[in-house]
Amino acid sequence: MRKRQLNSISSNESMGHYRPIFFALPEFKVKSVDFESRFFEEGDLSLEILSEGYSFAYLREGKLRTVKAETDEGAVSFEDFLRRFNLEAEAKNIFKAGKYLSRIFRPTRYAAWYEELSLYVNAREGKDVDGISLVSVKLAKDLGWHKAKPGMSGQFTLFCNKGLIKGHCVVSDRITSDVVIYSENVKEEIKLTKDGLYYLAIEPVKLGKSLRLDIQTMLNVWEMFGEEQFFKWTLDGIEAYVNDLLQGKLAEYLDDVESKTLEEIDQEGWKLKKAIYHGIDYRQYPGLFRSAWTMYRNAILRIPEDKSGMPVFHIPVLGGFRAYIRPDLRDHDEHGNFEIPPEEKVALDKYGNLWISGKDRIEDLLQILGGGDWDDGVGIIPLAGGKALIYRNPNQKGEFTIEKLESEVTPKKLYTLRSEIKQKRLLREEAKKDEVKNSLIALYKEIMPTYAEERYDRYNIMRTYSRIKHNGNSIGLVANAEMIRSSLKISDGRFGRVLMGFNWNLERVIDSTVKEGVSASDDLDQVERFYKFIAENKIKVSEALRPRIPEKYRMKTVFVKSKLDELLEAIKYVVADMEIKMIGDGVVGKDRIPGYIDKIVVPIKEIMLNNLENPMVSLAVEMLKEYNSEIAMILSNRKNQLEDVGDKIKAVQQKLAEEFTQYTREEQIAIVLAWAEEIYKSPKFVHDSILWINGTTADVMIEMLANIGIGLQIKKNGTVKRYREVRKAELGLKAIRLWDRQELKSEDFHNATEIFVDGSQALLGDRTLNVGDEITIPDGIYKVKSVNRAYSKKTGRTLRNSIEVLVELNV
């Protein structure tokens, strides 16, 4: 194998250490690549698809994705895009081709271009290799996954002149090639036109120890556990998290801090993770503590952004696992050949692989789990007697299996089923083979092109869009019907057998959207008749599911309070009550209900001592007051407490970010230091959002805390070493207070570029003003950086007869 050197490119899709590496090959000569999304629901996108404002476009679930690639010669045109990037995308299915292209374009954690890659194509076919590949330990480590070990696995993408291979891979120390793929996994809809070149990407996956049930799964297994168990799971999950939160054990819910590479630490975008990496105690800062609670709250119950419809519930299952189903190929040879062990067994390893054996039942098990492949994730609920309930998302009623589980990981808790439900009935479908007995006709079909491939251009994208733009609604319609049918045994069990007679296939409807061309008309007809039957027969539906009934049937449908409603109301109450206990509610000095956050002890002494000689205090305070004023105006102008003002607040934060980036890093640190003292010494210290804005002030705040010795520095010599070191920046700036008998306004001097200091007086613009007695500065001419209001150090109030001039000291 030989890995190619890559160019550094900018992209709005770069997220920490996730970058769109595909475009970084030097011969592509790309400087930047940006992606934009337009959702189908925004309106007719036909004209936008036909426009020339982008380099490429493709369709994904419910949205149009456009790519704009810039080179030294300018923007890459749509007509030249495929040629420039050595791509071939002549396909019968434009949507599927776009789906596959999006796979190679997207940001990835570990990705590279290779030459001379040793690739073995195993001719094995069948469900036991669907979506799975093998990679060598050597290749995984060369890609950047330095901790890769045999048996670990990850999301896998390989693109070459054979086509696209996607799915998951298992790391192997047995294969003699770099990669083993199975021939039936090769997608020929897109290809790389250059021989001997390979694009490879791996996103490691691992065992998940925080399992949460979505409402659909909860309804599908309701009879097995019941509302009391679901509620107890919620209480246990919240209690466990809060205990760890207050004891400073949040790192256990995030990635392993000590195993982070230098690159991952430097490019980590999430303030909470980055703060922990730098040894900062999140319990000492309201903004960080609030983020820690909100992160978990949103994982359980997320309110829709438009505040309409039902909240999204996810019930935490203490002791549950998230893993990935795999055929038991652990005993494979150097070419990836293996035999599925005949004994029916399910084994969970420490890496998150759920190995399935039992040669005669593999296909049955995949069908029971909703047509899964070997790259699908599953939920595992440990049961008494060494068994486990296993399911896949999304799932329909009966799509589960209860298996004897061999596990390398000891579950925290074991559960007992209160009753049983029927497993999904297996449907035996015979494969349809296009068998041609006439050898001459067979030869003709082999050598003659189909002439059915569509050219990948704007016009065919637009036509495909016109065919599928309403398909996204179909998934919601059917998923809601599935949820309502599962709930009816709770709210109204009179028509159980009749309602189960309405047969639809959610997986097929999903395929109609993500694999455009698959018909789901029969399924949608069944769903339509189902909704009509419910309305006409006055079947009682849980009030919580009212928003999921189509509007045309909603007025005729009977809604009642059921055990589902009681459960969801109880969960909302518990979460809301715990939220107030943790982060309080309201504004300090007005309607504040205090929480744990109000008792936080911020290390204010260290902050104040380091802020004593900060020349940027007045400028920082002025920025802070303006920010607070704009936020207060937004909040006071709300029509009610539920009005969503998130976009307006983001606009204010964006405005602040633009102003903030005008200063050097050292100046930004000084500004944040001044903000920290101003906020944390006041009674309103819990309102510190300005210090923790993701991607801007939060990064600077963390660096500032490390510089004053509260946090840890990160050693940057190729290895990760955290250490404590106080760093004091020399800004080369000085604040000069000027005063006069008349009132002074800073805005009257904003055009001033120089100040002449002569003893106790100074000439600023065309006015001679007095220099404050506390100011010591040599006579001379200084360059003005900014003119700001002056504030009393005793009271913090504006000094009406003074201004403060920030000047650059002569070096």
Question: What does this protein structure show overall?
Answer:
There is one protein chain. Strand 3 and strand 4 form a beta hairpin. 32% of the residues lie in helices and 23% in strands. The protein is α+β, with helices and mostly antiparallel strands and 811 residues long. Helix 6 (222-246) runs antiparallel to helix 9 (286-300) and helix 20 runs antiparallel to helix 21. Strands 1, 7, 8, 9, 10, 11, 12, 13 and 15 form a nine-stranded mixed sheet that branches. A six-stranded mixed barrel has the order 19-21-20-24-23-22.
Mean of all residue-level pLDDT scores: 88
How would you characterize the largest beta sheet?
A: 9 strands, mixed
Q: How would you describe the shape? A: globular
The class by helix and strand makeup works out as: alpha+beta
Helical stretch count?
A: 23
Rounded to an integer in angstroms, the radius of gyration calculated over CA atoms is 31 Å
The total strand number stands at: 34
What portion of residues is helical? 25-40%
- Euclidean distance between termini CA atoms: 54 Å
* Unreliable stretches: 262-269
Strand fraction band?
15-25%
Question: Which terms would index this structure?
Answer:
811 residues; alpha+beta; nine-stranded mixed sheet; six-stranded mixed beta barrel; 23 helices; 34 strands
Write the layout of secondary structure elements.
Layout: E1 2-3, E2 30-39, H1 46-50, E3 56-60, E4 63-71, E5 74-75, H2 78-84, E6 87-88, H3 94-105, E7 110-115, E8 119-122, E9 132-136, H4 137-142, E10 153-160, E11 163-172, E12 179-182, E13 186-187, E14 191-192, E15 197-205, E16 211-214, H5 215-220, H6 222-246, H7 262-266, H8 271-277, H9 286-300, E17 301-302, E18 312-317, E19 321-327, E20 345-348, E21 353-357, H10 362-368, E22 377-383, E23 387-392, E24 400-407, H11 439-447, H12 458-468, H13 471-491, H14 496-500, H15 506-514, H16 521-536, E25 540-542, H17 551-554, E26 558-560, H18 563-583, H19 604-610, H20 617-636, H21 646-660, H22 665-680, H23 697-707, E27 713-714, E28 722-723, E29 733-739, E30 754-758, E31 761-764, E32 767-771, E33 780-791, E34 798-808
Parallel strand pairs: 8-12, 9-11, 19-21, 20-24, 25-26
Antiparallel strand pairs: 1-7, 2-4, 3-4, 4-5, 6-14, 7-15, 9-12, 10-11, 10-15, 11-13, 16-18, 17-18, 19-22, 20-21, 22-23, 23-24, 27-28, 29-32, 29-34, 30-31, 30-33, 31-32, 33-34
